[in-house]
Write a structure and sequence with these properties.
3 domains; two-stranded antiparallel ribbon; transmembrane helix; single chain; membrane; two-stranded antiparallel sheet; 475 residues; mainly alpha
Length: 475
């Protein structure tokens, strides 16, 4: 089995028309997969959206309408199943503190303004491309395993004896179905689970909202709201947005969808900034893209931007015709189903660490062949470039794996991507420093002399041992 070189990261903005054409082509070839895949991120979206709506920190009508619009634009522009999901740190703090709606909006605006500056100046792209691959893989794996832990936390709140669908029996049955269909990516698992869940909700006697006409209203935060929001929640969200929502998404899309141009870091940064610098003035939930959502939609069948477009259209219609009244319906969705969806998305994301020492992009280099080549259209060429795999030693493989695990451990232990990046970076430079020390002539001589001395001592001991064995015993 030949190893395939990775797709190079993109720069600049994607082609809207090419992405749209690819979306239409894919949705006709894989209609069920795109519809089912569009629901792959509901396990993250629904709990946070309903909790923030109940706490009064977002406006549900504005959230449905604006996040739906961003779904449509993102899917049409990038041509991959890129998601629009809540900024998790801001969401968690706004629920636990709790914060006011204007402070929550201020946090989203402040974070997005900083991301806009970093993207516009090109600093974000340069930073993202200079992060070592083991650290990138560690952030992605850490995010995936964090989703698994979140699923486990929700699972612990269920029981065996609950009369509703929120019990362990339903979780086990849903998990068995997922495992027995895992090799059949075309099986509409998420669509089946969502449909079954809505049937259970409607059968439980929850009041069905009446349709009406709803539009978002202007809710501008003050300067004090923006400052307080950034200090309370924005500081914790900023590294999460940069690392997981922008940089990790660019690398992950290149790994999962090598046939598609990956969205560039600068375009993802400008996308995240634009969504919140517009929507947050109307009370819409602060949103971003995310590697967990991308892996979730991919896991359940989505292969193009058609999936987020389908979800976006549904969101806009829900917001316009039902508004905040639909929140009571969504909060009753069975948590047992959401647990399995989140768990599967986390496992799919954590799988990206598998190729760290085999086909990761830093294990390939450009090789130039200096020989004359007759090209049918370009004529005579004096050289040809091709990607060749770089062989690394067993020690380098182990060290790369340890760096990735250190990053994963930092992310999981602190629930903060910045801490994980710092832990992995210290480990990375620790190995570089040791390598430099071993290559220094003085130290290398000392190490070599030490090895010679140890080897010589071992030879003396062995020779004396053989001599003692060979001498005849005296009576």
């Amino acid at each position: 089995m030949s190893l395939k070189p990775p797709q190079p990261l993109s720069r600049g903005w994607p082609s809207f028309w090419r992405s749209t054409w690819y979306n239409w082509k894919t949705v006709f070839e894989n209609p069920v997969g795109e519809v089912a895949g569009s629901l792959g991120d509901l396990g993250t979206l629904l709990p946070l959206l309903t909790a923030m709506a109940a706490a009064g920190t977002i406006d549900p009508t504005a959230t449905f309408i604006f996040s739906g619009i961003w779904n449509i634009i993102s899917g049409s522009l990038f041509g991959i199943p890129i998601v629009v999901q809540p900024m998790k740190a801001i969401a968690g703090i706004s629920i636990a503190r709790p914060m006011t709606l204007q402070e929550t909006m201020g946090a989203g605006i402040a974070v997005s303004f900083i991301v806009f500056i970093l993207s516009f100046t090109g600093f974000l792209a340069e930073f993202g491309e200079r992060i070592p691959i083991p650290l990138i893989k560690g952030i992605q794996m850490g995010a995936g395993l964090s989703l698994v832990l979140n699923a486990g936390a929700t699972l612990m709140k269920l029981s065996w004896t609950a009369h509703s669908a929120d019990n362990y029996v339903v979780v086990i049955l849903a998990w068995i179905l997922l495992c027995f269909t895992s090799r059949h990516q075309q099986f509409p698992y998420a669509l089946l689970i969502f449909g079954l869940g809505m049937m259970l909700v409607l059968g439980s006697g929850v009041e069905v909202p009446n349709p009406g006409w709803n539009l978002p209203s202007w809710m501008p935060p003050t300067g004090a709201d923006i400052t307080n929001g950034f200090l309370f929640a924005g500081l914790g969200q900023l590294p999460l947005t940069i690392l997981n929502s922008i940089i990790a998404v660019s690398y992950l899309s290149a790994d999962l969808l090598p046939e598609r141009p990956s969205p560039s870091i600068e375009s993802l940064g400008m996308s995240v900034a634009s969504m919140n610098l517009i929507g947050c003035w109307f009370g819409a939930m602060p949103v971003c893209h995310g590697s967990g959502g991308l892996s979730g939609q991919f896991r359940f069948g989505a292969r193009s931007g058609a999936a987020p477009v389908i979800l976006g259209i549904a969101k806009v219609l829900v917001g316009l015709f039902f508004g905040s009244s639909v929140s009571a319906l969504l909060v009753s969705f069975p948590k047992s189903f959401l647990v399995v969806l989140v768990f599967a998305a986390g496992i799919e994301l954590a799988k990206v660490g598998e190729d760290l020492n085999s086909t990761a992009r830093d294990l390939w280099e450009i090789q130039v062949e200096n020989r004359a080549i007759i090209h049918p259209t370009l004529g005579l060429r004096l050289h040809r470039e091709r990607l060749v795999r770089v062989e690394i030693t067993d020690r380098e493989k182990k060290e790369r794996f340890v760096i990735m695990l250190a990053t994963v451990g930092g992310v999981i232990a602190s629930r903060n991507d910045a801490v994980g990046l710092l832990a992995g970076t210290v480990c990375y430079f620790g190995y570089i420093l040791q390598e430099a020390m071993e290559d220094t002539s003085f130290l290398k001589i000392a190490f070599d002399q030490g090895n010679i001395a140890i080897t010589g001592a071992e030879e003396v001991i062995q020779s004396k041992g053989h001599q003692a064995l060979s001498e005849p015993k005296k009576e």
